[in-house]
Design a protein that fits this description.
The complex is a heterodimer of chains A (511) and B (652). By secondary structure, chain A is α/β, with parallel strands linked by helices. Chain A is built from 21 helices and 16 strands. In chain A, 42% of the residues lie in helices and 18% in strands. Chain B is α+β, with helices and mostly antiparallel strands and 652 residues long. Chain B has 5 domains: 3-102, Rossmann fold (3-Layer(aba) Sandwich); 131-200, ATP-grasp fold, A domain (Dna Ligase, domain 1), CATH 3.30.1490; 206-446, ATP-grasp fold, B domain (D-amino Acid Aminotransferase, Chain A, domain 1, 2-Layer Sandwich); 453-569, Glycoprotein, Type 4 Pilin (2-Layer Sandwich); 584-651, Beta Barrel (OB fold (Dihydrolipoamide Acetyltransferase, E2P)). In chain B, the strands form 9 sheets. An 8-stranded antiparallel beta sheet of chain B has the order 14-13-10-11-12-15-22-20, with helices on both faces. Chain B has an 8-stranded antiparallel beta barrel with strand order 24-25-26-27-28-29-30-31. A 5-stranded parallel beta sheet of chain B has the order 3-2-1-4-5, sandwiched between helices. The termini of chain B are far apart. The chains are: A alpha/beta (511), B alpha+beta (652).
């Protein structure tokens, strides 16, 4: 586990390094603040900040973090989603990972009804990747104004370039603050204007803060410097008259009786070694109190009521990886109950899938698995997913995997996600190939098969790695297991910003 | 005498009320508008408002005070010290009104009130005196001649004065003319009499005084001497008894001379005979103070006597015991006068709110102030007298310096550091000093903050961690999440405090029960950490301490065994450029514009006086820092101005 944590620390450090020393130095020499420092000044002192997908794009051709910082922070007492372009990374330009990270942050803001701050300084989209970005990138603007339409305030603080398409970021925001002599917001810069109309215009005339504050009216506030812009941003948040819609916490938070630091020793680095999930829950939930539901039935899935940082929740946690019909039915009932009680659900994933084999197929494992997936898909209370081990096959779906719209999904660094394990997948393909060879009567090349099996297994295993999936924004970030309670607490507080209301309406349950 | 009106204010009014209470005597206070919330007003059985604020409009209004006594049927008046205590006219008016004046006869006050007359009388009685000349109705040339006659340097002193007001050392004839004018002005405004006189100046002199008491039956006794050589601006700040600097023989001669002096004028009541003692043990009569002295508690401490009770007893016609029955002195007592003042700016008085006032330790504290007291510009800025009584001098000095160092004096700048440094000074402790001690030692060095820069940084950390706790406990959302939690920490929490001119950048990151911090870059770890709104406990650099944190008037105050510090937090969003135009000269303190010496358009040289501000009965010159032209005058003569107000704008 320590090795996994080292990888996490290394990746986070790389994210903090942004575009590297040369670009960071140049940025600082211009008297500008780094994106994380801007965020630190925006948020309330001593309040927490949960960075989302900090290791996006790790292991790809792009810089770790994808040139964008996103997270949940408190601005003048208001929980907000905060986005900040990192101008040290290719001028803050948008690549496909950046887009994915940005749209996910928007989604978190929208689903949880959180006001959105965008600290803009971006050179726009990476033109070399325009085919991947231009059309889907419209969502950057569409979602911003839809958020506004849904009553979520959007606030753009413009620190530098925000040109061409990027100009619509402030353009689509409820409040716009621009830094004097720094912000440049225009559709076309001086060269483009010269080419298009022959006009000689300076960039200040085309899109300076002074012009937008005094002439075009695009800027609502002109800040004298970056600090001033952040001060104005805090003032705006303080005047939003913002109230959360959720019922809030019902209990006084109480620290777990067992030390969360011990989580490192409980989760296994080798996922083949099972571990007792109640040991994890006892180090996460308030007072280590967990009121278990159906403790004698479907024991491979632990369900029960508990609270985290004072927020009442229902918990579904895999104990031994495999799900049988009993577990699936228990899950469906429990999800229905949580919807009746309007309680958020926390899914603790360590699942190898639904049981296979003739006995289980005949016992209706598909029907029962479908029951669980149906319940998860149609449940309307907020779901938060924590992946503490493996997440394989349809088990991932049933346990609120990425496709199932959890409000938040966090991953421990030892976690692995795939349709199945590398060895199983490669072995399955090998059997299929051998059978095909037998049917066609051709000779089966054992050595080639062995080589193919090994290579495939290695690739699948690499792709199942938490850092691989997190790089592709298939979660909301890898976290230190010891931070689980804190992260869940922040997530639960965020989901309470929106109404929490269960449903009676599910798909047709096959019985 | 069944009911005494106290014609005074502050600590001395409380002091007199206390003794009256032990004697079964009812008390009446009088108070100015500025003192309407003061403690002595409520501690007296009754109080009569005098109106006004300035002394001349309140505590110096003898008629109003006698009227107040009549209205409350008081039959005696205790004048305290200062104000009307040495006014022969007032003492006479009391007698005419049928009131007992707790003090000497008006004739004695008049005779001793004139320094020249008193010296003449003393010389006649065979008491050695310092040569002096009255400068009344003489030309400047004659004054210079008189000074040369006495021998330079000379002192210019107010004839009706005391407490160093209007006193100046003059070393040359050029200085003399200006010093006479200024001395007269100050004498007139402080004492209502502009007569000044010149006195020979004794170099390296000690100031030793003898407490005497006389009754109406012709007996005068002494109650030992007090050493008052630690002075600033001719005002005593540390007084003690017995004097460490005189031998048994000199002491005997001094005490005898004091009784002779008192007997020569048929002294009644408590009085003090002041002497200058030179390095050779020779002494000269300086003056006689016909009142209770500020520093009387040191005498009380070593003798166990209550001097106010003795005053009242003799005023009632009671007889004093014989000299032999005066209790012997035990141990050693030292008093320190705690002032609201800025030693670094020539002891300018400081006004404002005293947010917290607390002095612990086994010391006597005579104070007029309390938590939240407003210290105004109208009266003497004395906050408290702190008196330690030890087995010996070293112990008394230690008790006093510890009590002062640990005192909580929040809101106002004081002379605390200077007092503590003097009390810990090896020369002082050796008893080897004279009236020039403070000047020789250097005010800046003595008055420098007691807490070192490094310790102040630890205090700044305590302030930061306490603020952090306040913010976390008051957080509207996510209050239960660990303070400053980050999953991707890029920097510490930051706060910058200003302490005096220095800035302290505090960076910290909390962990469970601890904090990692950088204090101006110095890495420290705060272990065993508890942080709350009013205190922080932590182990820093191997030592666990409790730090008390409070906030008032935009400042943080931190007190611990490391000392007492105050900080102003610097806003993390720096404000735009200063709004005061270049060349603006501001009022250094609140006060009244006495006169304008320049007009708009005047060209001035560096050092020229532009206007004179009067505050706390002293005159402060606002001078041109550079040569230039007066562009704007923003104040008029007679106008009351606040500190920081722009008075004059100079341009080139």
């Amino acid at each position: 586990m320590m090795a996994h944590l080292d990888r996490l620390q290394t990746a986070l450090a790389a994210a903090r390094d942004g575009g590297g020393e040369r670009y960071v130095t140049r940025h600082l020499e211009r008297g500008k603040l780094l994106p994380r420092r801007r965020i630190e000044l925006l948020i309330d002192r001593d309040a927490p900040f949960l960075e989302l997908s900090p290791t996006a794009a790790a292991g790809t051709d792009y810089a770790v973090g994808a040139g964008l910082v996103s997270g949940i922070g408190v601005v003048s007492g208001v929980e907000c989603v905060i986005l900040a372009s990192d101008p040290t990374v290719r001028g803050g330009s948008v690549n496909p990972h950046t887009l994915a990270k940005m749209l996910r942050a928007y989604e978190i803001a929208r689903h949880n009804r959180l006001p959105l701050f965008f600290l803009v300084e971006s050179g726009g989209i990476d033109l070399e990747r325009q085919v991947d970005l231009f059309l889907p990138g419209g969502a950057m603007f569409r979602d911003l104004t839809r958020m506004s339409a849904a009553g979520m305030p959007t606030i753009a603080l413009v620190f530098g370039n925000s040109t061409a398409g990027g100009a619509y970021l402030p353009g689509m925001s409820d409040y716009v603050v621009m830094v004097r002599e720094r912000a440049k917001v225009f559709l076309g810069g001086p060269p483009l204007v010269k080419m298009a109309t022959g006009e000689d215009a300076t960039d200040e005339e085309l899109g300076g803060a002074e012009m937008h504050a005094r002439t075009s009216g695009l800027a609502d506030y002109m800040a004298t410097d970056e600090h001033d812009a952040l001060r104005i941003g805090r003032m705006i948040a303080s005047r939003l008259n913002w109230s959360k819609l959720g019922p809030g916490r019902r209990r006084e938070p109480a620290a777990p009786r067992h030390d969360p630091a011990e989580l490192l020793g409980i989760a296994s680095a080798d996922l083949k070694a099972p571990f007792e999930v109640r040991e994890i829950l006892g180090r996460v939930v308030d007072g280590s109190v967990f009121d278990e539901f159906k403790p004698l039935y479907g024991g491979n899935l632990v369900t029960g009521w508990s609270s985290i940082h004072g927020y009442d929740v229902g918990v579904l946690a895999n104990d031994r990886g495999v799900l049988f019909s009993e577990e699936a039915q228990k899950a469906a009932q429990f999800i229905q109950l949580a919807n009746r009680s309007n309680l958020p659900l926390v899914f603790v994933q360590n699942v190898t899938g639904y049981m296979v084999g003739s006995r289980y197929e005949q016992g209706g494992i598909i029907k029962h698995g479908a029951l669980m997936v149906n319940a998860v898909s149609n449940s309307t209370v907020p779901h938060i997913t924590l992946q503490v081990g493996g997440s394989y096959g349809a088990g991932n779906y049933g346990m609120a995997g990425r496709a199932f719209d959890s409000r938040f999904l966090f991953t421990w660094p030892n976690a692995r996600t795939a349709v199945m394990g590398g060895e199983q997948l490669a072995g399955t393909l090998s059997i299929v190939a051998r059978q095909a060879a037998e049917r066609s009567g051709s000779e089966f090349d054992e050595a080639a098969d062995e080589e193919r099996r090994r290579r495939l297994a290695d690739r699948i295993d690499a792709e199942a790695d938490a850092f691989y999936t997190s790089a592709r924004v298939l979660d909301d970030g890898i976290i230190d297991p010891r931070d689980s309670r804190t992260v869940l607490g922040i997530a639960l507080s965020a989901v309470h910003s929106n109404e929490i209301k269960g449903t009676d309406t599910f798909g047709v349950f096959r019985m | 005498m069944d009911k005494i009106l106290i014609a005074n204010r502050g600590e001395i009014a409380r002091r007199v009320i206390d003794t009256c209470r032990t004697m079964g005597i009812a008390t009446v206070a009088v108070f100015s508008d500025a003192d309407r919330h003061a403690r002595f007003v409520f501690e007296a059985d009754e109080a009569v408002p005098l109106g006004g604020a300035a002394a001349a409009d309140s505590y110096l209004k003898g008629d109003a005070i006698i009227d107040a006594a009549r209205r409350t049927s008081a039959d005696g008046i205790h004048p305290g010290y200062g104000f009307l205590s040495e006014s022969a006219a007032f003492a006479g008016a009391c007698r005419e009104a049928g009131l007992v004046f707790v003090g000497p006869r008006p004739e004695t006050i008049a005779a001793m009130g004139s320094k020249i007359e008193s010296q003449r009388l003393m010389a006649q009685a065979g008491v050695p005196v310092v040569p002096s000349r009255t400068i009344d109705g003489v030309s400047d040339d004659e004054a210079v001649a008189a000074a040369s006659d006495l021998g330079w340097p000379v002192l210019v002193k107010a004839s009706a004065g005391g407490g160093g007001k209007g006193m100046r050392i003059v070393r040359s004839d050029e200085e003399l003319v200006e010093a006479l004018a200024a001395g007269r002005r100050e004498a007139a405004s402080s004492f209502g009499d502009d007569t000044v006189y010149l006195e020979g100046y004794v170099e390296r002199a000690r100031h030793v005084e003898v407490q005497i008491v006389g009754d109406r039956h012709g007996r005068v006794v002494h109650v030992y001497e007090r050493e008052c050589s630690i002075q600033r601006r001719y005002q005593k700040i540390i007084e003690e008894s017995p004097s460490p600097g005189i031998g048994a023989e000199t002491r005997r001669a001094l005490l005898d001379a004091a009784v002779t002096a008192g007997s020569a004028v048929g002294y009644e009541g408590a009085g003090t005979v002041e002497f200058l003692v030179d390095g050779a043990g020779g002494f000269y009569f300086l003056e006689m103070n016909t009142r209770l002295q500020v520093e009387h508690p040191v005498t009380e401490a070593v003798t166990g006597l209550d001097l106010v009770r003795m005053q009242i007893d003799v005023a009632r016609g009671g007889a004093l015991p014989e000299q032999a029955d005066i209790p012997p002195a035990h141990g050693h007592a030292i008093e320190a006068r705690l002032y609201a003042e800025d030693p670094g700016r020539d002891f300018l008085p400081v006004s404002g709110t005293l947010h917290q006032f607390r002095i612990d330790g086994s010391v006597r504290v005579d104070a007029g102030v309390y938590d939240g007291a407003e210290v105004g510009i109208y009266y003497d800025p004395l906050l408290a007298k702190v008196i330690a009584h030890g087995r010996d001098r070293a112990e008394a000095a230690r008790m006093l310096s510890e009590a002062l160092a640990g005192a909580r004096l929040h809101g106002l700048q004081t002379n605390r550091a200077l007092l503590v440094r003097v009390l810990r000074d090896p020369e002082f402790l050796a008893g080897d000093f004279d009236t020039q001690f403070i000047d020789r030692r250097g005010v800046d060095e003595l008055a420098a903050p007691l807490t070192s820069a490094a310790d102040a940084e630890i205090h700044a950390l305590a302030a930061a961690l306490s603020d952090q706790a306040v913010r976390r406990s008051g957080a509207a959302v996510l209050g239960s999440i660990p303070s400053g939690w980050r999953n991707n920490p890029s920097q510490y929490q930051e706060v910058t405090f200003r302490r005096g001119e220095a800035e302290i950048l505090v960076e910290y990151r909390l962990e469970a029960g601890a904090a990692e911090a950088r204090l101006n870059g110095r890495e420290v770890r705060a272990g065993h950490l508890t942080a709350a709104e009013d205190h922080v406990e932590m182990t820093v650099e191997g030592v666990h301490r409790r730090y008390t944190v409070s906030r008032a008037g935009g400042r943080h105050y931190v007190d611990s065994a490391l000392g007492s510090t105050d900080f102003v937090e610097i806003d993390r969003f720096p404000a735009a450029a200063a709004s005061v135009a270049e060349g603006s000269l501001t009022a250094p303190m609140p006060g009244m514009v006495r006169r304008l010496d320049v007009a708009v358009g005047d060209d001035v040289e560096a050092g020229d006086v532009l206007l004179v501000l009067e505050a706390m009965k002293m005159e402060h010159n606002v001078v041109a820092p550079t040569a230039g032209r007066v562009i704007e005058l923003r104040a008029a003569a007679g106008e009351q101005v606040e500190a920081g107000r722009v008075l004059v704008v100079l341009g080139s």
